[in-house]
Fold these 2 entries.
Entry 1:
Amino acid sequence: MSTFLQLCVSGLGQGVVIGVFGFVLAFLFQVCKVINVAVGEFAMFGVLATVALTAAGVALPLALLICLVAAVLLALLYDRAVLAPTIRRPSAERILQLFLLTFALSMVLQGVALRMFGRDVFALDPFLPGEPLRVGGVVLDRQILIVVGFVGLFCLVAWLFTRHTLHGKALTACGINERGALAVGVSPDGYRRLAMAVSAGLAVVVGLLVSPVIAFAYNSGFLLAMTGLLAATIAGLRDPVRALLVGLGVGLLQSLVGGYISGHYQSVVALALMTAYVLAKPNVVAAR
């Protein structure tokens, strides 16, 4: 029983990371119909750049701030220079076009990271050093607890913002009916840029928080984004909270597979099952 509980705890820790990326992707699609698969690369680049900056003598808080600001500025610049012109052109294939444009950004960031940092694997030191906590024979990693706490706080703030503030309701309205939002004076462009900035910043922060537990290389972000995308797709791509819950389930499944079958099949089995679900229900996005 203790082994099962330990695997569940570890799986939920992994699931939080997957769920956050699913949350980000579903949130973006809900607001502006953009599937930004480059969020994984924002996380990866944030970790690798922070490690490089601290190795060069930059204080960790300043390095974190530099990477966070750089990610937000890059997201805003890419939106203005690349995504916005495509969105302004009416097209029945706009969602696919935007997906390919964010996929292109993902590939470019991977190439730049490979050129700058090589194929080495990088990780930050734990933010809370010390022995793991033990509760009834179950080991709780301090760093994962930080991630869980941050994600829980962020979800609470996001829920309060969207449900109880005027700007939050306007943000939601843009995703429900863009023309209706324009008719009442709400700017979809402004809220899309806000969503892009928040998603980029959140990806960087989560990447930095989990980097002491999950080491990053130049290609680590892509798997995170794809797993998050499948979780968000199962959730309908319009429900961030449900995407987070699906991500938790995926992490739990990965941990149980790794513990009872083989660690080599963790990601393979989870991705295969999620892909099979999406293929079995191709209208899962339209169902919401």
Entry 2:
Amino acid sequence: MPDTDWACHELLLRLAGRLPDDVLWRFRDWLAGEAQPVLARALPRALLHDRIGLTDLEQRLLAEAVLQHGADRAAVSSVRGLDELPHHDYTFSPESPDRVSMGDSATVVLGATMRGRHAVGEVRSCWRQSGRGAVARRMILVTASSGHSRLTGELQRVLRALGEHDPAVEVLAPGMDLPPYHRAALAASELVCAGADADGHLVPS
């Protein structure tokens, strides 16, 4: 994908667990649908509205992702800086703590869709629980060597068809330096299926 698209994909990935779920999936859907000008206007406003700060790396990604697509420079420069990532209050488990899940239907469909897929490594699943007592949510974590934003959009649409209103799909590049949020999710995840590039594992086997 173009560098600006990768910068936006990486930034949205790093904002998982910080932006509201319903906002994050919509932004990813816009990126997958090549609606970058819409996203370029909306993303800085969302960061300002929710008072979400960015690290130096994330600020560089934001500028690269949105300025070329017409973002308001004043809004981009007004996003506050962070010295380090804030601590997240999520816990992760292989199975739903609520014992309520899409269960087999999601596993079967994802397996059929992604097993042996070109440029895809592992597809993994875990459940995220908020310290604020919200209902547990399924997370899908995928490693892919290309087509990250398009694959995110595709999997979001699959999960919405299965009943997930705000699907949580994290498509990672091999060897990425991941935030603590994703490292914790991966540590608790279970393998759903493997693509054609499954020699690059997300987590040690």
